[in-house]
Structure formats: structure tokens, C-alpha cells
From TrEMBL:
InterPro entries reported in the protein's UniProt record: Kinase-like_dom_sf (IPR011009)
Positions of region (Disordered): 1-28
Composition skew (Low complexity), residue ranges: 10-27
Protein name: Protein kinase domain-containing protein
Species per Swiss-Prot/TrEMBL record: Brassica campestris
């Protein structure tokens, strides 16, 4: 199955390779022969001169020849996600003040770009993918042009190979191949002098070199033993000098390349002209004049974002998504304003801008008190949170800290001894207007509490639905000075909402990353989620936010594991409610109308299964693009074909859902639950519930 870390060749960690079942041996040999002859970037650039000249002539004056690879809104959201992430301070930097063609400066630049790439992949891995100090699975090395092998920059310089270094690459670590393999390359960076041209994009010689390396990587991936989590038809090449940088994105199906070993450069040029899509970001500053990396500027941000996508191609969706980390932007902004005494005193002037109050001197006693309060707020393993409701108090001891929910165990409750719960902790009530509240946490805690309570009131119950274990307000340490039962004191946690649900399990996103989501799990997931949807819809409730992070696999304390559909904060209870908007998982009707139709949740379930079973995850940056992808995928039956590779019943169910998309006709859940049940192991059948 796709959607997991690539299976590297046998290493000390015990991972193994597997050959592609698609490519024949003769085709692989032809492509490898093509690669051995495809070694000179200048030859390719010469073949592209006329084509590039036509592109320049057809573009408007001073306008970029190629579209950028990323939308500004994507970069903004990524920037929000990185607000709480600290990048390593680089010690080796290119010094643009004394930039020249001298050997020492060029050597320093190679050392600097190596440090820059290493800091980037290490920080991204730890922030988005790593779990419990998992080691960074990447290495960074310089490409030696004579043999197309990789060496550490210091090693290459010590051997006197500076003049023959052509690029710096980020590669998968593999002790069996210390000098790297081309299909192990995540991305390449070309270090060249003065990369900016008149069109704010690289010149033809530099672009031709980038296209040459991109095509080499794509061909190497097409004959690779690696099992790519994402599409291998896209590669990012970074271009930089001692001040500026840009991103070149090349994507295309190399199966459409004519692998004629007698005219490799003609064939490569024809493929680039007719079968590739090229995107180039504007050349922008990534280092300041002193050589420090401008981590927060847009030039550096687009380079880091390209690296993020490169990692995702090999390791699949991250454990912590951009949306999850970006959701904390508002609360961080709120905290910064409160720290600067802007929480209560800030007002708007006549131009709509914030007018800051006078700077206030903070006494040492106030600082110490603030630090003590901050310590009380910190959640860690072993922390106990007490919940206050109208009728009882209940404690939860945290055993695992994570987002969006922690895992905890009830305290002093014999009935729940050893039983784990998901613990959602909301934002403390704000002094600002509600618009400043962290709406993501509001949906997870307050809104989900309401939905689960409504389910309980309407008598909706199923093993595939979460159960409300407790909800209320946190009892904070110390004496509470709130003026009334509905008020709050000045303690940071006073009035903080909390929600506890059962059961606890591992998300489908984690199962996919671990390579544990096989055909049996896919069918069972479809059955169990459909059963949950059947139960909820019988009470007039639709989910509206089905995605891999909102389905958990319950294995603890049960004979037969099963899936539970969680994350009901965006559920639709009445006509005015609006579902969550997700470019990859929302239904077509939800994206078009902002509402759900009868089959919307089932359509989202199909998308989730498709991506989790190895379907190509497209780069979507707009609703229009998402709708176009859906139309193309359904019309070409790409989704049905992919799910058909997993199971015929999933293919049949996707066909059925396709026939209902956008219509008012409800799903016949019962018949499909019976069919899905028959496709599961027969000896497990008696344990499967088909309705709530």
C-alpha cells in the first residue's frame, strides 16, 4: 500500500525493498540506458533555446514566463503554521558583502547551502512528521559532476573537487549507498552566481540545467524500487546564489517520454515541450547581506515549502497537518497582544488600525506571578485536570500529549479503571471579541460537546460513534475568585472548556503513515464509518468533516478491532449549519453550495479511502481546482479504478456514490452494510454491527 515511508533497501533498521510490479525488466533496462547517456545539461539547454525564446516573446513585457508553483494563500497558511517552529541558527553562511569568484567564497557558499538544507529538512521533519525523537531520515551532500555521486561538502572540498561540484541534494539516508542514488533524491539545489534575470526568473542556461536535473530524477524514480507515498511525477529544484533563490517545479508523466538511446537530448527536449508542466517562483532574497537566512521572508518560505512537499512525496501526509499548526495562529496573536497589555486597552483609530496604549512598566513581582501562572497551564504527561459540571467533579490524568486531543485516564473512578479517553481542552474565554477566539478549538470542544449531547438526547448510539464521557469547565489550581457561577476570575485557565470522549484509538492517518492500512482495514473502515453515518443520519445529523484524522482504529480491550468516526464539531444539525471546507475531502456539493446533500458524507468517505489506499494526492490551492480534480477523477473513473485495485466491493460502492453525488436521494446504507460485511472475514462477521 502507498501512503507510508518508502521501503528502502535493506539497512541497519531492517527495512526492505520491493520491486515495482508495473515495469517490465526490459523497459527498466531501456530507461537505465537512457540515464547513462543523459549526462550533459548544456546539450539539453541548446535543444530548448528556440522554445524558450518563443515563450519569452509570447509573454508580456516584464512579466514572468512561468507561473509560480505556490499560491500566496498557501504560503500565508504555511507561514502561520511555522510561527511556533524554531529554525536552527546557521553558523556557516554565504557572505554576500565580499561576494566574488574567489575559491574561498565559493567554498563557503557550498558549506552554507548544505547547512541551510540540513536545517530545513531537520526542522520540518521534527515539526510535522517525527514522533518521540524519531531520527531524521535525510542526509545532505554535494553532487560531483564527474561521476554523478554525492559527497559531504567538507569531504569534497578536502579532495579538491570544488570546481566539479554541480549541485547540493537532500537524500534519503541509506548506509548501503553512502554516495547516494538518484531515486533517493528529495530535491536538488543549484548554487550559481547572479541567478536573477530581467524577468525575475532564472535565465535559460540556468533553467535548462534545472530541467535537466529534474528529468534525471523523474526517470530514476520511474525505475526505482522505492514505494512512493505520493506521486513520483513531480520534483522541485532549488536555484540560489549568495543572496537570492527561487523554486523550479517540474511535473509530468515520464511514460510519455520516447526513450530512444540514440537521441536522448532530442527526446528529452520534446518531452519538456509537450508533456511537462513547469512552474517557477519569482527570484527573491533568501539570505540577507550578512549571510543570515531570512527564515520568515517569502523568498525563504517558498524554498522551505518546496522542501515540505518533497518530504511529503516520500513519507505521505504529516502527523501534524499545516491546518492543525496554522489553527494556533489566532491564539498566538491573542497571547502576544495580552502580553503587551493590548488585550483590554487596544482600540481602533479612525483608519481602522490598532492604537497601542502607553508602554507600561511591569514590576518583578508581576513577572514572577506570570511565570508561576504559566507553569500551572502547561500540560504534560502525568498532569491531572479536574472537570467541573453542575452535578459532579471528575479528574483526568494525561498519559499522552498530542493535538488535537490528548489521551487521559479517569481518576478515582472504579467503573472506568484502566479505560482511556480522548481529552479535548479548549481556549480560555477571551477578553477580546469572539472573532479573536481560536475557532478550531471551539469546534473541537464546545461545538462537538453540543453535537454529542444532541446525539445522546435523540437516542443515537453505536459502537462506531464516540461517546460523551464528560464535559464542563476546568477547575484551576488555587482559589477561584470568579464573581458568579457564570463569570470568571483572572486565572488564565478559569472557564476553560473541556471535553472527554471514548473510545480511544489510532487515527487512520497514522495507520497509513505506518503502512498498516491494508485492504482488510479499508473495507472494515468503509463498513464502520458507513454504519456510523447511518446511525447519525437517522437522527438528522450529518458529519461534514470526514478525513483520515477523524477516524480512529480501536484495538485496546476488544477482541475484534473496529473504526470509530470522531471529530463531530462541524456536524450539520440544522439547515443553517455549514460543514468544514477541505479541498481534498469535502464533497462536490459542499464545495459548490457550502451545504451537504444526502450523499455528501459518503462521497467524503470515498475520497478518504482513495487517498489512504495510495491514490495520488493532488496539489489543490482553490475551490475551482478542487472541483476540476473531482470532475476529471470521476469522469475518467480514476477513483473507481484505484479502489478496485484494493477490493471489488469498494469499487462498486464508489460507483454507487458517484451516481448519487449532488442529488437529493439518500443512500441505501443497509444493503451496502450487508455487502461490505460479506467481504470481511467470515469468522468475524457475527461481531459486526450493521446499524446503530
Amino acid at each position: 500500500m502507498k501512503g507510508k515511508s518508502p521501503d528502502l533497501e535493506s539497512t541497519g533498521s531492517g527495512t526492505t525493498t520491493k520491486r515495482s510490479s508495473v515495469s517490465s525488466g526490459s523497459r527498466s533496462r531501456t530507461r537505465r540506458d537512457f540515464l547513462t547517456r543523459f549526462t550533459n545539461s548544456e546539450h539539453l539547454t541548446n535543444k530548448l533555446q528556440d522554445w524558450f525564446a518563443l515563450l519569452v516573446e509570447s509573454s508580456e513585457s516584464n512579466e514572468p514566463v512561468f507561473d509560480p508553483p505556490f499560491e500566496l494563500v498557501e504560503l500565508q497558511k504555511f507561514d502561520y503554521a511555522l510561527e511556533g517552529v524554531s529554525f536552527q541558527q546557521l553558523t556557516r553562511m554565504p557572505n554576500a558583502v565580499y561576494a566574488s569568484t574567489s575559491t574561498s567564497v565559493e567554498a563557503n557558499a557550498y558549506l552554507a547551502i548544505e547547512d541551510f538544507l540540513h536545517a530545513t529538512v531537520k526542522t520540518l521533519w521534527e515539526a510535522f512528521w517525527s514522533q518521540e525523537d524519531e531520527p531524521v531520515p535525510f542526509s545532505v551532500g554535494c553532487l560531483y559532476n564527474q561521476n554523478l555521486k554525492f559527497y559531504q561538502a567538507e569531504q569534497a572540498l578536502a579532495l579538491g573537487k570544488l570546481e566539479d561540484l554541480s549541485a547540493t541534494g537532500v537524500l534519503l539516508k541509506n548506509p548501503r549507498h553512502p554516495h547516494g542514488k538518484w531515486d533517493h533524491i528529495l530535491e536538488l539545489a543549484l548554487l550559481r552566481p547572479d541567478i536573477e534575470s530581467d524577468h525575475h526568473q532564472p535565465s535559460l542556461p540556468l533553467l535548462g540545467e534545472a530541467l535537466f536535473y529534474a528529468l534525471r530524477i523523474l526517470i530514476a524514480r520511474s525505475v526505482s524500487r522505492l514505494d512512493f507515498s505520493q506521486s513520483s511525477n513531480c520534483v522541485f529544484i532549488l536555484v540560489a546564489d549568495t543572496q537570492y533563490g527561487c523554486v523550479v517545479k517540474v511535473e509530468g508523466d515520464v511514460s510519455k517520454l520516447d526513450f530512444d538511446v540514440n537521441s536522448v537530448y532530442d527526446c528529452a527536449a520534446e518531452w519538456i515541450k509537450n508533456h511537462s508542466k513547469i512552474s517557477v517562483s519569482p527570484v527573491d532574497r533568501i539570505w540577507n547581506k550578512l549571510g543570515n537566512a531570512n527564515w520568515g521572508d517569502i523568498g525563504t518560505l517558498q524554498v522551505v515549502f518546496a522542501t515540505y512537499h518533497s518530504i511529503m512525496q516520500f513519507f505521505g501526509p504529516p502527523r501534524h497537518s499545516i491546518e492543525d499548526l496554522a489553527a494556533d495562529h489566532t491564539s498566538r496573536l491573542h497571547s502576544r497582544r495580552q502580553e503587551r497589555h493590548l488585550g483590554e486597552d487596544t482600540s481602533l483609530n479612525e483608519n481602522g488600525a490598532f492604537r497601542s496604549p502607553e508602554i507600561v512598566e511591569v514590576q518583578e513581582e508581576q513577572q514572577e506571578e506570570k511565570i508561576e501562572r504559566g507553569d500551572c497551564m502547561k500540560l504534560e504527561v502525568g498532569s491531572v485536570l479536574w472537570l467541573e459540571d453542575s452535578n459532579y467533579q471528575k479528574g483526568y490524568q494525561i498519559s499522552h500529549v498530542s493535538l488535537p486531543h490528548h489521551i487521559a485516564s479517569p481518576v478515582e473512578d472504579d467503573d472506568d479503571s484502566g479505560r482511556a479517553v480522548f481529552l479535548y481542552v479548549g481556549s480560555p474565554p477571551s477578553q477580546l471579541e469572539p472573532a479573536w477566539e481560536d475557532m478550531n478549538l471551539w469546534y473541537q470542544v464546545q461545538r462537538q460537546t453540543k453535537v454529542l449531547s444532541v446525539m445522546k438526547q435523540r437516542g443515537l448510539s453505536s459502537k462506531y460513534l464516540p461517546e460523551l464521557h464528560g464535559s464542563g469547565r476546568v477547575i484551576h489550581p488555587g482559589q477561584c475568585q470568579k464573581p458568579s457561577s457564570g463569570g470568571r476570575c483572572d486565572h488564565p485557565w478559569c472557564g476553560t472548556p473541556i471535553l472527554a470522549t471514548t473510545p480511544v484509538g489510532e487515527t487512520v492517518a497514522d495507520l497509513v503513515n505506518e503502512g498498516m492500512f491494508g485492504p482488510e482495514e479499508a473495507i472494515r473502515c468503509c463498513h464502520d464509518c458507513l454504519s456510523a453515518l447511518s446511525s447519525s443520519s437517522s437522527g438528522g445529523i450529518r458529519h461534514g468533516d470526514i478525513r483520515p484524522e477523524n477516524v480512529v482504529y480501536v484495538t485496546s480491550g476488544v477482541r475484534l478491532p473496529y473504526f470509530v468516526l470522531i471529530g463531530w464539531g462541524h456536524a450539520v444539525l440544522e439547515e443553517r449549519d455549514r460543514p468544514a471546507m477541505n479541498l481534498h475531502f469535502s464533497s462536490t456539493y459542499a464545495l459548490q453550495e457550502g451545504k451537504l446533500c444526502a450523499a455528501s458524507d459518503a462521497e467524503s468517505l470515498i475520497y478518504m479511502l482513495y487517498f489512504c489506499c495510495g491514490g495520488d494526492l493532488p496539489d489543490l490551492d482553490s475551490v475551482e481546482g478542487a472541483l476540476q480534480w473531482r470532475e476529471t477523477s470521476w469522469s475518467k473513473r480514476l477513483i473507481q479504478q484505484k479502489l478496485g485495485d484494493v477490493s471489488t466491493i469498494l469499487k462498486a460502492f464508489s460507483d454507487y456514490v458517484d451516481s448519487l453525488c449532488g442529488t437529493p436521494y439518500p443512500l441505501d446504507c443497509d444493503i451496502w452494510l450487508r455487502r461490505l460485511k460479506r467481504n470481511l472475514s467470515e469468522d468475524h462477521g457475527k461481531d459486526i454491527e450493521t446499524s446503530g
